[in-house]
Amino acid sequence: MIEIDLRETPVRALNQRLHDLRPDSNERAFRVLHPMGAHAIAVGVTQPVEIEVDGHAGFYCAGMNQAARVTIHGHAGPGVAENMMSGRVHVRGNCSQGAGASGRGGLLVIDGDTSSRCGISMKGISIVVKGSVGHMSAFMAQTGTLVVCGDCGRDLGDSIYEAKLFVRGKVESLGADCVEKPMRPNHVEKLARLLAEAGLDLDPLEFRRYGSARRLYNFHVDHAASY
Amino acid sequence: MCGIVGLFTKNPSHEARLGELISAMLVEMTGRGPDSAGIAVYRNPAPDDAVKLVLFSHDDDFNWQHLAKELDAELADKVSLEVRASHAILVVHESFEQIRRWLRERHPELRLMSAGHAIEIFKEKGLPEEVVRRFHLQDVQGSHAIGHTRMATESAVTTEHSHPFSTGMDLCLVHNGSLSNHNRLRQVLRRDGGIEFQTDNDSEVAAGYLTWRMSQGASLREALEAGLKDLDGFYTFCVGTRDGFAVLRDPIACKHAVLAETDDWVAMATEYRAIARLPGAENAKVWEPAPAQVYSWGRAA
Asked: Under an 8 A CB cutoff, do A115 and B253 touch?
């Protein structure tokens, strides 16, 4: 485990070192000490390395992650794992707003709660929140899956496209064009797989599914031949 | 973009370090507000029959000693004076209304930064680090303080446009965000509320609004809750009071805010990294204030 202390090493130097890693490098595991809420820790990593952040992270931690497995042993600020492409980001504490925003792939696991707009504009990422999420989560969510084991704040899934939302607790209110949908066997299977990946022993049948009513679309699939 | 910091100490050992701690928090928020910075600190309460004022002069050579003598001779004796850079702290045994009238007549060139018993507001253009140095803020001791680093979006960069804004006796406001209905609201408050404004700054309107609400009998909490209906825009507010501070975010809550508490202190900041500078921060309870909800701390509470 390579230890990098952010009291001595600037975040830019840390990120440069991570970006310079080659597939054949034998540097496979890093521990970031004293993050002190610094922004942009471990963004844009493209190699399948392990990164442990030993404390609270600031904005955009593990953003644009590709292949790395990042664990934050603390809380994370706004935009954790934003635009993640693949890999896995695990936050042991709570997250601020916009967790997993516009993420395209990979798995984001949050042990605590998030504030507003979790999974805003998500595009393929899987997000599993063990606690609750704030208002306007999954706003304009395009594809991917958001699993919330706790409750959701107001306007869940406002203007949602084709993302799938699974909620175990209460939903304060649904946003425009977001509706409850039946849990079919394929949804139960998908959810069970995600819960297992996140290390959660919960019954998928305790969850409700929400998605788009498809009334806000400009494009209507029945008219596809007309375009 | 702006930065807000607030620190409320729960024990005397931290009171002695208030200036050092709030200064470190303020400097950490430089990236969010390099245009100007300000701080409101609550310390050395004036006697009940006196009022503490902080005045600002554009003239670096302004003779504050002479002003104190004038006040002493014409209005009230036992005037105490402390000069900190472009600002002066005066404790005067006279009613606030009398002093304000006298200042308007005799020294219209001076700006009133704050008034009350414990509050002292210092604010200036420049990097937070320079502002801290100029006012020797690191040496300040006291029970609590709030600060602001400004990146101007709505109005000019001057000392008067900087935060905190006084909102009445021992009260002040710092704001991160922008208000969209401030012009109309300023007109209404001037016309119907008799509120005076020094600048065209949107945040000063929020301060004036709270002043007006409280002059109508509202508590601080009631005034803030009424603000949720009347103030249109984006905001995280931190309001300094004689006993503590209060925090409010707008219902959309785009403007960042984080709160933290230990047995020794309560802190508020726009970003956690400002709080990370405080002793024991790594073990503090840290959380994000919910939208449209008033949070407050105080010795009396």
From this structure: yes
